[in-house]
Give the backbone structure.
Amino acid sequence: MSEGAGRGPVGTPADHEVEVPAELRAEIEEIISRYPQKRSASIPALFAVQRRYGWCTPEGIRQAAAVMGVSAPYLESVASFYDLFHLEPAGRHRILVCTNISCWMRGGDQLLDAFCEATGADREAAGHGGALSADGEIHVSGFECLGACDLAPMASIDERYYGPLEDADAAAVVDALRSGAEVLPDREMAKRPLAGGPDGDPDPRVAGSG
């Protein structure tokens, strides 16, 4: 790939040419530090942009590219490949309802219905790529598989997994998102206790081995 004068690949914005919010810069720099190659940080860096702006805005992509030292067209190509990234306005919040077989058998389609009703999103569109709530704040979409069958039926809400969910939970989730309250803390996967218990006791069959 051809190089620009001191910039790396053509299309890479010079860091001094792009005003990057300090919080976003710090987040992306921390992300880059986790990887041996900076391009490996592309997906989490784009998620950082999307969380800040609600979608992968052209300027947000330029900001991430400047911090990473890669070209903006490269980051845009990554964002356009994955359907979890949005290159157009898509609301401040995202609800992805799993509709694959485990969730479907436990009412995933009806759960998607409930979220559409609670938000005013178009149900047909939500089942085919996603739809915005009536106020444009919440993106609702069915999703083929979120890989959490033990939580069925479940949903990803602003990148966090919740489940099992009931149809009646949809309205509570939407109210919490709009008010800024915590979303269903007792249903969040990250807050579930570990299978081994709170102390993480070792299996007595292997304790002391080695």
